[in-house]
């Protein structure tokens, strides 16, 4: 295809060449030529006008996590661009592929403090995998091709293209798009053979000899689409597998070898057993401090095998005995072929014994409470069950996130959208928009607290305008609950600025044109959830939960994972 | 234990990359003791030499982060012992000390392995290459007795003691790897 187009048209044509049909964005002065070009392509591209640029970038993240493709967002220069930064930082730390396109003042005005000029290339540098400023229309196709290649290859991440307004107006004599397949200075994943052959052999020998091995599976499994390969590996070896927060849904929840979630509010078994294991096999995870807690006392009896695409993760936190570099989609089958068939029934039974302890002291109280008030856990489990454990779970950040991660159940992969590394409050509502657009035929439920809800509440308007049938469950405890929990446990119950005077959330939703309903008693819950799920369109369920419930188990900050607490009795 | 390390980076010559590199030091609160960037022997490839004072473990980690930057071809680090390295220093001394006929400055220059670059009726400019302690020692002498009015020292340039250039080997491997990917 060779024709004369403007830089702005080249942007849209390039996105079409990359197969993009959904963009999240917010127009403004410096990106108006691109929006003008977009006007002619509304039959091919759905543009979702969010109510804030932060909403656009989180929606793009949600879209990317569910679809596996790069999320695309548009923003104007200056404040538009700076409003993207939180979401870009979130995507960077959680390895979410994004292509963010910002307008910029015309190139002769760069560096003159022009109206709505901000150095977004400089500002975004620490939180992007790559970024680039385009000042000439001819560069646009190649820059966009490079942007998609970098965002989606290897360990994915966000990229930003800043396009000067004059470049958007300029003519290109001949538009020609060529997908980027290689960059001299960038090898997204190293070839597995022959470099990893020896490491795979060593890893297999260690695995075969291990008595108490444990798999730690992370988001890398999902991003590599290696769910089947993971399952084949654990089933052949019989090794219990625990998932990280971002690894949720990579295995079915009820897989016999799935022993639950690692981390600060993870399950009792995988935390306790980490310090008893003689081998940890980390697959596409990065030993985040919420997983390891105190590194010095972490897994002292275990050798460590790390399957990882990003070489800089090896030995970053935990010293590895054998590293297997590369895409786990390729390395896992080689490892599976190299190990002997095995089972670890007695070891697995130890995890199940821990499950029993956790059930008796934590889960039964959460799911079958004796007290009157609703618990977050029973609401989450009710929604999971009534969606047949097959909805896409989106969460905000805080107590509801941890409770949702603990009690929501999954049947298929790419069904959990949550902000892990950055812990971005306000993420939930916009991320749910992206998730629903990526999977229009699936039920998307988003759990959000009353704090995070009010950070991006304006996106209710986006849901209504675009008729997105997102089911919002507000777990409303009138507190910034996680901070309040820490204040209760570690700051002598000094509730410093964590109690909220909330609006009438049902009226707020109604004001946006969204149906909503409040439940505060157990006997209303089933009916409330049923009404929400049966409603044709977006819906808010304002669930009033116990004000001062805590999330347990909990590994206190700085403690060892095996010092996980089941209740607050041992905290002074 | 902290000690001096030399981080070498071969990169594409792209705008903003210096910022992207230094961010990795800033966020870990590692001070850059000296920095030299210039064109390498290979067209279009820049070479950075960054001197830091830190533990080997931390240096290893920051190098791993630098190595994965999209525009970086290769990053690695060396101890001082595995390199031959130099810095260049320039000193300005009033010319009266050289024109007074006693040759003291000229002798000092000769003995220090320095040389006089330029002299006029106001000042002389002396140049010395060497390690930091050597250029510093000459500065101490020149300022104590001869009123050295200006002193400037460059960043470090270094060459490995290994008989082969790492980058040439690396580029050959990289070309082979890239040629397997279809356009």
Instruction: Tell me roughly what share of residues is in helical segments of chain A.
Output: 25-40%
Number of helices of chain B: 6
Report the largest inter-chain contact.
A-B, 23 and 25 residues
Determine the number of helices of chain A (DSSP H or I, runs of at least 4 residues): 23
Radius of gyration of chain B: 21 Å
- Averaged pLDDT of chain A: 97
Q: Return residue spans of chain B where pLDDT drops below 50 for at least 5 consecutive residues.
A: none
Separation, N- and C-terminal Cα atoms of chain B:
47 Å
Largest β sheet strand count, sense and barrel closure of chain A:
6 strands, parallel
Distance between the termini of chain A: 71 Å
Q: What is the helix fraction of residues of chain B, given as a range?
A: 25-40%
Oligomer: heterodimer
Work out the strand percent of chain B.
35-45%
Our estimate of the beta-strand percent of chain A is 15-25%
Overall number of domains of chain A: 3
Shape of chain A: globular
CATH superfamily of the largest domain in chain B: ACT domain
What would CATH call the class of the largest domain in chain B? Alpha Beta
Characterization of the model:
The complex is a heterodimer of chains A (572) and B (183). With 572 residues, chain A is an alpha/beta fold. Chain A contains 23 helices and 20 strands. Chain A has a six-stranded parallel sheet. In chain A, helix 1 runs parallel beside helix 7, helix 11 (227-237) packs parallel to helix 14 (328-338) and helix 16 (376-386) packs parallel to helix 23. Chain A is globular. Chain A starts with a strand and ends in a 28-residue tail after the last strand. Chain B is α+β, with helices and mostly antiparallel strands and 183 residues long. Chain B has two domains: 3-84 and 157-179, ACT domain (Alpha-Beta Plaits, 2-Layer Sandwich), CATH 3.30.70; 86-153, 2-Layer Sandwich (Alpha-Beta Plaits), CATH 3.30.70.1150. Chain B has six helices and nine strands; from the N terminus they run E-H-E-E-H-E-E-H-H-E-E-H-E-E-H. In chain B, the strands form two sheets. In chain B, strands 5, 6, 7, 8 and 9 form a five-stranded antiparallel sheet that branches. Chain B is elongated, with a radius of gyration of 21 Å. Chain B starts with a strand and ends with a helix. The mean pLDDT of chain B is 94. Classes of the chains: A alpha/beta (572), B alpha+beta (183). The interface between A and B is medium-sized, with 23 and 25 residues.
